[in-house]
Specification:
Helix content: 40-55%
Shape: globular
Strand content: 5-15%
Distance between the termini: 50 Å
Strand order of the largest sheet: 2-1-3-4-5
Number of helices: 9
Length: 241
Amino acid sequence: MTSNNSKINNTNTNQTAEEVKVIQQRTYEQLLQGNRNFVDTTLQEDPEFFKKLAAGQNPDMLWIGCSDSRVPANALTGTKPGQVFVHRNIANVCVHSDMNMLSVLDYAVNVLKVKHVIVAGHYGCGGIMAAMGNKQFGLIDNWLRHIKDVYRIHSHELDLITDVTARANRLVELNVIEQVYNICKTTIVQNAWKERPNLEIHGWVIDISTGLVKDMNVSCSNSDNLGKVFALDSIQSIETK
């Protein structure tokens, strides 16, 4: 989520409704032209590219990132279409109540058999900044509660950071770490670990000002570090009297 609230087109307030409509239509047409340019350039490099792409996907990585438009998975990792399975939401939150995220995770882990799941946050995240404050924004407040919970868990550290930007950057990092642990605690990942040792969960933070990734060094390949209550055994039936 970006903290920049400006629109794509900064139209002059004196422009007529018709002029604004023309600008919007031009922007839309540019997107279509951009697609055509992409196809033409790609076919020049590899005439069979889209035929091979249509045959199926076999990505090794699931990317769970922020919806912010400045952090595209393929561009940041230097990968091509078909190499990264992607899920994005505001502030790269991974919670057990999000059926969308869980469905993507289940498909990636159990069908595509990805070897790496990367939770990718970024400095300058608007969702993180909003969660640090006390303002109401509407429906999104319910989503930001998950980030506020991360702050609460680590408030003893965060409250000691007086610089707001530095505190936000640290919350970005802590949020990534907590979301990695949340992914590891799912039955999807824990059951996969029982069958194969080649599934790893990682946490990254992207510095938009440099484009570089910071590895948070919280990679997990088993449930050893999750705590006893989260290390799940096989499914057992519950007896009722």
